[in-house]
Amino acid sequence: MTLPCFKAYDLRGKVPSELNADLAYRLGLAYARKFHPRRVALGMDVRHSSRTLLEALALGLNRCGVEALDLGLCGTEEVYFAAFQDGIDGGIMVTASHNPIGYNGMKLVRAGAVPVSGDSGLRELEALVAGSAETPDGSAALVPCELRAAYVRHLLGYLQPQALKPLTIVVNAGNGCAGPVIDALEPHLPFRFVKVHHEPDGDFPHGIPNPLLPENRAATAQAVREHQADFGVAWDGDFDRCFLFDERGAFIEGYYIVGLLADVMLRRRPGAKIVHDPRLTWNTIETVRARGGIPIQCKTGHAFIKERMRAEDAVYGGEMSAHHYFREFAYCDSGMLPWLLVAQLMCERGQPLSALVGESQRRFPASGEINRTVRDISQTLAGVEQHYIDDARAVDHTDGLSMEFSHWRFNLRGSNTEPVLRLNVESRGDRPLMEAKTRELLRLIEAQA
């Protein structure tokens, strides 16, 4: 039996029809019985259902003799941070990130912040939960756990204080969980923060925090221009992703931030390996090789990226979707480290963000991700491949379909959860060509839709 809230990498579902206290309790039992932890850290986002789900998880863990540590309101990466501390054997974050307001979810890791997903235990947990009829009875014993100060010290350890200069930075938490962390960082940094939608609020009065949607970017962009800020940062609800805006308020595609951070990390660790996803690649590959690093392509998705980074001992991994992974952060993704490292880079070079990414944007113009609904993902992919196969210089199926030509390339991949194809196109310094090929591909996809 399968449960609709169990996805490829985590749990997401409508509350209470797909995800509720009974299911959370059984998940706590299942996690304890499968992994045999002694102490598990639990955190939650600002959604109104999160506390109830966290307490049910804790009760399930308690029933198996597991101590449940309560991190309270926090970001997903704070649960990851807890899980790689001595004496803590795993972590569960209650969050639906950027999903609609009626949803919630959970992200699970083991000791060392090793993800629990797909074949690494999530399917077994689903089977245990589905096969159980146990219901919660009683109250959980939660042990308060304060790790934010240690987490902030860890973040600051990536910076060189003497290199930092006063900057004005717009920070938009989207009424999610990022605001309190900014407040904790603020006394340690020479930056002036302009705070937008800063207070955590489970009603999300300004909309669900998802800066990937163009309609959700206006508040950050406007504040950057109004306050003449050096740059802007916006987060999703659990702040495991951050999105950057330059000094003009222009949104910077995550692809170009991957190349920027790869450069930063290779200056610190010459010759290191960098893992990247297959959607947009040319800028990352050329940047990494120019710095003497080794680029490694990996299937999209945090479980795949983290597994490959561990196998290769890569110093950094980046996805164009604004997930950025760091070896010293237990190979996990962080939404705080990227903007901190970019801020330091701006201070060191004395250049605005637009200048730091401008050359890459000119050399490798990209379409950004475009979604289209289709009847049959496999059939559409096969039709597109057949259409271009005679002219392609390279074809790759690491994740969907990637095809490379002399001056342009594309990646077309299916969603894991819906009949949607996601298209990304880039060229070598030829924006009109990139735009023409994007239109051509969309016509081809729509003809089969």
What would you note in describing this structure?
The protein is an alpha/beta fold and 449 residues long. The chain folds into four domains: 11-147, Alpha-D-Glucose-1,6-Bisphosphate, subunit A, domain 3 (Alpha-D-Glucose-1,6-Bisphosphate, Chain A, domain 3); 168-245, Alpha-D-Glucose-1,6-Bisphosphate, subunit A, domain 3 (Alpha-D-Glucose-1,6-Bisphosphate, Chain A, domain 3), CATH 3.40.120; 254-363, Alpha-D-Glucose-1,6-Bisphosphate, subunit A, domain 3 (Alpha-D-Glucose-1,6-Bisphosphate, Chain A, domain 3); 370-447, Alpha-D-phosphohexomutase, C-terminal domain (TATA-Binding Protein, 2-Layer Sandwich). It contains 14 helices and 20 strands. It has helices at 21-35, 50-63, 76-83, 122-130, 148-156, 178-185, 218-226, 254-268, 282-290, 302-312, 337-349, 353-363, 377-388, 431-447; strands at 11-14, 39-44, 67-73, 90-94, 103-110, 142-144, 168-172, 192-196, 231-235, 242-245, 273-276, 294-297, 316-319, 323-326, 332-333, 370-373, 394-396, 401-404, 408-414, 420-427. The strands form four sheets. Strands 1-5-4-2-3-6 form a six-stranded mixed beta sheet, with helices on both faces. Strand 7 (168-172), helix 6 (178-185) and strand 8 (192-196) form a beta-alpha-beta unit. Helix 1 packs parallel to helix 2 (50-63). The longest helix is centred in the last third of the chain and has 17 residues, at 431-447.
